[in-house]
Amino acid sequence: MTLCLGVLFFVLRIGLRSRKGRLAGAPPSIDLIRLHARLAKPAVAFVIVGFIGGGLSSSLIRHWSLMESFHAIVALVVVALFTATAVYGRRAEKGEGDPGLHGLFGVLTMLGSLLAAIAGFILLP
Q1: CB 3.0-4.6 Å disulfide test: which of 7, 21, 46, 112 passes with 78?
Q2: pTM of the predicted protein model
Q3: What is the pLDDT of residues 32-48, one digit of tens each?
Q4: Domain residues of the chain, as ranges?
């Protein structure tokens, strides 16, 4: 999960660099946009799989109740934000959505990811 989030922070940096150019009036860098999408799509899928795996392992291996920790609640919110970010990114990719809203969701998602990671430290064996 840490590697996946590292990739997504890199994806965020690419997206912010693309946004900076767009706001400066420069033509969009198709290479940056393609790299952003190519890295983000599988990474978001891995985050969702990791969320499901975390719930299963905490329930089946550690015999905890689902969603009893602060980490689990934050992770659920983060997965919802990742999904919203992906949906708005797909819309922006098709030219139908607002790339600014996609970016806002992306930043909120990564901030939530940091909070989930910090909240997860207490759960480590």
Answers
A1: 112
A2: 0.85
A3: 989 999 999 999 999 99
A4: 2-123
Euclidean distance between CA atoms 102 and 118, whole angstroms: 25
- Name the one residue in this structure whose structure tokens are 């909120």: 108
Residue identified by tokens 């949906």 is 87
The CA distance from 23 to 17, in Å, is 10
Q: In whole angstroms, give the CA distance from residue 116 to residue 78.
A: 8
Nearest to 99 by CA among 33, 45, 47: 33
Sign of CA dihedral 97, 100, 105, 109: positive
**pLDDT tens digit sequence for 73-87:** 999 999 999 999 999
